Amino acid sequence: MKYFFSFICKLIAAFFLFSSISAKLSFSQDNQTQNNQATDLNLKAALNEMNLGSFDIKKETAGHEEDSAKVKEARAAFLPTLGLNITDLFETRYAYTDVSIAGSPSTIPQIIPNSSFSLNATLPIFDGWMTSQRYAAAKSFESSSMNSLEWSKFKNSRLLILQFYKVIGREKLVEVSKQNVITLEDHLKNISLIKKVGSATNFDVLKVEVQLSEAKAEVLNSEDNVVMEKNKLAEIMGRSTEDRKLGGDLPHFSQSTVSHILNSLSNETREDHLHRLDLISLQSKLRAYEHLNTAAQNHWIPRIYLFGQYQSYNNRSESFSDFDKYRDAYQVGVTLSWTIFDGLASTAKSEIALQQKIKMQVTLQEEQTKTKQNLELWKRKFQYYHLLSQSKSEEVKKSTESLRLAKAGARVGTRTNKDLLDAENELYRAKAAEVEANTNAIDALIQLELTSGRELYTFSTN
What we know:
Layout: H1 2-39, E1 40-41, H2 43-53, H3 55-75, E2 81-88, E3 96-101, E4 104-109, E5 115-126, H4 130-196, H5 202-237, E6 245-246, H6 255-266, H7 277-297, E7 303-314, E8 327-337, H8 345-412, H9 417-452
Parallel strand pairs: 1-6
Antiparallel strand pairs: 2-5, 3-4, 5-7, 7-8
Helix pairs in contact: 2-4, 3-4, 4-5, 4-7, 4-9, 6-8, 7-8, 8-9
């Protein structure tokens, strides 16, 4: 019975020990999974961070809020203004006026209320439509900033996608260059052994050493390029640095996809580029300056206001709270204000608004001209880099087969060490060229999207 009880206790202790170890292992695995998730960044997460942290989007958002507030300011010119004034004199010395009453000289003090409440109201009736034009200008500026904000979101999202894949492309080049170094190191070991048996010369060894040195330098250059491209990615996202590992692979475009994109662009009319939000924003600004120019030109038209004033004043006692002594007064009327000459200040404002309008009109025409030219340019580049990418992909396959044949020939003695080395270099160059061509094709596509102002291809965000 004693041994049985001891066995049960040991079994229970072992069970709790096993449970504790399992929990710790599970917790460690969960932490490892969370750490892996924290160090990985896919395209979808990058886009979400960009929308929240982009410096450009934040500035455009603040600009839109500012223009919205200016609309409220311009709308206020249609509404009456109301003001309240409260006055209490705590020390006075009145002015006196000498008069003659019934032949007798007298001195009468100036009558000024010791305390008063004054309510003033002014309502604009007519100002030569200047207020209407300024309000229309403010609305146009608000519309412009809204389109500019949406364009900033679209532009930054496409630039982030481009930069995201540039980083992936650079990381692939690092992998390719490191693999090349490993291959050349193995090759150097083999050629050194072959030299010992007299089948190779110092020239062969030195040639491999030079290529290995260049390959190691290329690894360092590729790693530096990754760091620089990641810094650019971090800047687009609104971050200072970016050290996380990117998840995903470079997209490859099929011929049908490329043909569909190019055909959709070829079917556009000459005015289709006007749906670009940045150009629409410029058009709204142009309309705003036209309204401001019209408002400035109407400075010579007289202005009519309706005004009213109600006053409660006490000029009978010096007590502010002696409300029984207060009297009432009011006045309502119409005033006409006409500026005859203001030193040509209004004329200068009109000229400024006119030149702003002309400058914006020229800017819009310039951007429209660039859009037509860039559309054709990037269509050609996209098609070229796509064909180049396909060509380099085939070249990689052929170089891989050539390297296989060179290794097989070297084993049976029909191929020399130089043939094997040349085949390895051709494969390395082909892989690097394929990555570059594919990255350039993505770049051309993004530039096409920015030029046309619309999404032409849906990139996978997983």
